[in-house]
User: Fold these one by one.
Assistant:
Number 1:
Amino acid sequence: MLKRHLQYLALGILVSTNYGLASTLHVTNHNKKPVKVKIVAKEDSKAVTKMEIPAEQQSTFTVDTEHLNGKSVYSIKGDTNPFTPGGKCNDLNIEKDYKVTFKDDKAGTSCVAELIK
C-alpha cells in the first residue's frame, strides 16, 4: 500500500516538473500597427505559435515545452508588414523570463529581448 502511494507521488512529481518549465514573455509593441508574432522552436520549424499584438499595446503570455514540441530554446519574430524586415530575438530559453519589445525603425521592425531577473 505504501509502495503504491510512493509510486503515485513520484509520478506526480515527474509530471509537474515536466510541465513546470515555462517562459513568461512580457511583450510590448511600440509600432503604430499591430505586430504579427511568431514563436519557433530552435531546430524544429514545425513547432510554431502565432499571435498578434495590437498597435501600441502590451501582452503577457507563456511559452512551454508543449508549444515547442519538447524543445527548450526558441526565437520570437515580429513584423507589421510582409514587405519589410521583421525583428527577431534568438536563443531564448523556456527556463527564463523575458521582456520583449518590438519597435518601429526605418527598415522595418526591430526586436529587443531583456532577461527578467
Note: Confidence is low (pLDDT under 50) at residues 2-19.
Number 2:
Amino acid sequence: MMDGSCQSKLAEEELRKYLFGNRTFHYWNGRLENLLVGVEAEYIIHRKGEPGSLLRKQDFIRLIESLVKVGFKKNMSPNAHPYRVSKDTEVGFLSITPDFAFHIVEIALPPRADINSLTSLFSETLELLDLALGSLGFERSKSSYIPCEKSAYDLVELHEHKSFSETSRVNVSNEFFTQDFPAKIASTHIHLNIGSEDSLKMLPALYELEWYSSKLFSNSQTIEGQVVHDIRSLLYRDCLGDDYLLKNVPKEIPKNITEYLRLYNSSPQLFPNKSFFPVKDLCLIRPTSVGTFEFRSADSVSDPKELLKIVGFRIGQLIYATNYQDNPIDRRNTWQSESHIFHSLEKNQSPNLEKEQQSLRRMISSIQSIKEDSNWTSTIPVIGAA
C-alpha cells in the first residue's frame, strides 16, 4: 500500500496551467481536417532467437552509436534524457529512447496530418532501428510482455525510475503482481490533438468503447497456463492497488478539471522525490501537457496496416464521443465498471454483451454519418467492418 498521506495537494489552477496552458500542437476544433495523429511505439528487445536475453545498458550504448551512423543525433543539452537519440526529418522531429528499462525501446513520431507521412515515417524508422539492432545481434520481440526476473535487465537510471522501483505498492500475493512492472510491457500509444479543458467531458463516452480495444489490439498472453488480454491493465490493477485512482479506467471517470484534480490529489505518490507532479496518470486515456489525449491500451505493432487500424479505431472513438458526450450509455452497467473490465480481460467473456453491442451500433452509426472528408477518413471504415 502506498502512503500518500503527507503529499502536498495540487491546486486546480496549477493543474489547468500544466495540462492546458502551453499546448505544443494546434487544437482540432471539432474538425477531422485539423486532426493530427502522433505515435509512441514501444518494443521489447532481446538477442536474436533468445527471448530471455534482453538488451542491457552497455548494449543500448552500442545501439546509440549505430543509430548515430545513420543520421540520429545525441541531445547534449543538460536537461535532456541521457540516452535519447533524435532525428530531424522533412515531416518533423522523431526520437528513440529507452523507456523504464533499456530493453524497452520507444519510437516517438511527430504528430502527422495525413496517413501517408505517418506510415512512411513509421516504416522508415523501424527499418533503421532493425538494421542497427541486427548489426548488434538483437531484434524486436513479437510479444508485448516479458516475464523476466530483475537480474535479467537494467533500469534506466533516472531518479524518478529509481524512486518508483523502491516505492512499496501492494501485497505481493496479488495474482499479477510483479516488481518494476513497466519493465515487462510494451504498447502502442496514439496521440490526438483534442486536448482542452472542455474536452474532458468526452472522457465517459471515449471510455464507453475502450473494452473493444483489448479485443482488437491485444497480443493475447499465456501466463501460467491462463490466457489473458491487455496485460497492462491487469498489471496496473495488481501492482498499484485500489487506492491509486488514476489507473486503467477510473471508477469515477472525470468530466471536468475539478473531478480530475480530486482523483489526482487522492492518489498516492508514485514518484515521491519529484517536486512537481509526483502522481502519474496511468489511465488508459489521459490528457497531456502538449495538447493531446493519449490512448494507451494497444499492444506493440510493427505492420503499418495494423498501426492504421489502431489509428482508425481511436478516430472512431473520437467521432462517437463528439456525438454522444452528453448521452453516454449508463456507465454503471457497461464495461466501464472495474469488475466487468477484468472479467472480460481474464476470461475473454462479455457479461454485458447487450450493452457492448449497443455501443458498437452507436459507433458505426456515428461513423456512417460523417459528411466531412479528410486525410484520415479512409482509416475509419476499418472499424465499421470489425
Note: The CA atoms of residues 8 and 265 lie 8 Å apart.
Number 3:
Amino acid sequence: MNRVYKGLIAGMVGAVFMHIINLAFYYLNIVEIRFIDWGGFVFLGRVPHTLAESIYGLIIHLFWTGLMGVFLSYLLSDVNSRFSLLIGALYAFFITFVFRVVLILYKIPIFSEVSVTTNLLNTAVAFIWGLLAGEVFFRLNTRSKL
C-alpha cells in the first residue's frame, strides 16, 4: 500500500468520526454549521438544502479530508507513534486556521460569521480528526512494513 493510499484512508477514517461528532453537535443545536455544509458550499455555491445535496456535500467533504490525509502522510514520513499524533493535531489546527483566514478575507457570511461555540467546537473536532488521521496513518504504515 503506497503513501497516497494510506493517507487517503487515514483522512477518510478520521473524517467519519469528525462527521459523527459534528452532526451530533448540530442536531443538538450546539453548532450552527455542519462539515457537510462546507463540501456542499464549495460545489453547489450554497449550503445543501435537500437530502441528496447533503449526501453530495458529505461525499465531497470525505474526499477533501482524504486529500488532506494524503498531505499529512507526506509530513509523517518515518515518524514514530508519539510524534504522529502531535503532527496530525498541529496539521489539523494549521489547516483550520488557513481555512478560517480565507473565509474571513473573502467575507463568506455563512462560515465567517459563526458563534464562538461553533468555531471552538468545529476546531476541536478538526483537532480530533488530526489525531485520528495521524494514528491511522501510523498504524497502516507500520502494518505494511511487517
Note: The CA atoms of residues 25 and 31 lie 6 Å apart.
Number 4:
Amino acid sequence: MISVDKLYELFVDTLSHLEERKSNLSDKDLSISFEDLESDAFSFMHHRNIKLLIDAKKIPTEIQSDILEIRTQILKEMETTNSIEQFRSDTRWVKIRNKVNILKEKITHHNTGYTQC
C-alpha cells in the first residue's frame, strides 16, 4: 500500500494531465499524457482514495462530490474520444479542464490558506 503523501502526489499528478498548458504539447507528448489520464483517473480519483485523502486532511471534504463527478466525466469521455485533437479542443474536455482548475484552486486554498491568482 502506498503512503497518503504518495497518494496525494499521484492524485495531483492526475489533475495535472488536464492543465491547459498541456494542450500546447506536441501530439506525441499529449498522447502520452492522455493515455496516462485514463488509468490515473480510474485509480487515483477513486472514491476510496479520495476518502483517504480527506481523512488525512490533504483535500477538503466539500470537493469530494466534484472530484467523483469529474472522474465519471473523464472516464465517459475516454470512451468516445479517439483523437488528440478532440482531447485538445472538444468543448466537453474544455469544461472538464475548467472544473479541474477550480478543484486545484480549492485544494491550494485548503493546503495553504490562500487562493492562487
Note: The chain has one domain: 4-112.
